[in-house]
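MODEL INPUT / OUTPUT PAIR
PAIR INDEX: 1
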Amino acid sequence: GESVELTSRPVMVSSGQISWPSPGSFRDRHWAGFKTASGQIPMALDTDARAESPGETLVRLAILRAGLPEPELQIDVTTPSGTFRLDLGWSRFMLAIEFDGFVKYANPNAGTAAEALFAEKRRQDALEEAGWKVLRFTWPDLNSLETLATRIRTHLLKRGL
């Protein structure tokens, strides 16, 4: 699997599951309210194959843990500037959630970091001009799931939830 640093604790991503290495880790501290039907905190949380990164999965699970509506994944949005794929969100509320890791800004096949940032800005402008609100989250945002969920809930309510 792929190891990802998250609050100084590795998260293993393999075979469509995310698992934390030991009790008392990030999983127990931050996911205590996320229970299975048996009432247990899962040692491995199911992912959705459409998610393109562990960060997207963790944001989606935080949304579900907070009791918010389940988001759509990989939403294609057509604007006058082109068609863009959103990580996750709600089409009916025109609210997009983007998880930003460092990889897309450091990918040598995508040009320089400045070019990637400029393309991302143009993309966001096009989405917002089409009526979408785009919320961005990064790895440090996962350290406060309550803040993350409150931010999303606030924008869902503003958009008609």
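PAIR INDEX: 2
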Amino acid sequence: MGDGRYLHDSKRAIGATLAKVSSPSSPTSRVIHLHLDAPPKPAEGAPCNGCGLCCAAEPCPVGVLVSRKRVGACDALQWSDNDGRYLCSLVSDPIRVMPWLPTPLAPLLSRLARRWIASATGCDASLVTESG
């Protein structure tokens, strides 16, 4: 992603990689802060590897509902030390982002979220990264 290092996270300080990103629809570049150990963004269409770049840039449609914002990192984006990648909390731990959700509904929401975020369909982020 990038070789710059920066300490940033909304919840706690962590080592992070700087990635300047732009997209065909928005050629203006901006800096996204990712975990130092995040894998590099895969090519479009390649299997998702949990790089987190797409969700750190902006929430997906269901992420907009959870985060209540259209710009910036999705609140459901969660780093997993065990997996060494980013996960969507709506899939991995729905109660984390929706604490009011009745626990018995969490598995159902997780299954629905997989469909809503198009899990396992390949990277659809048309973001261009450059080292920062």
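PAIR 2 NOTE: The longest strand covers residues 26-35.
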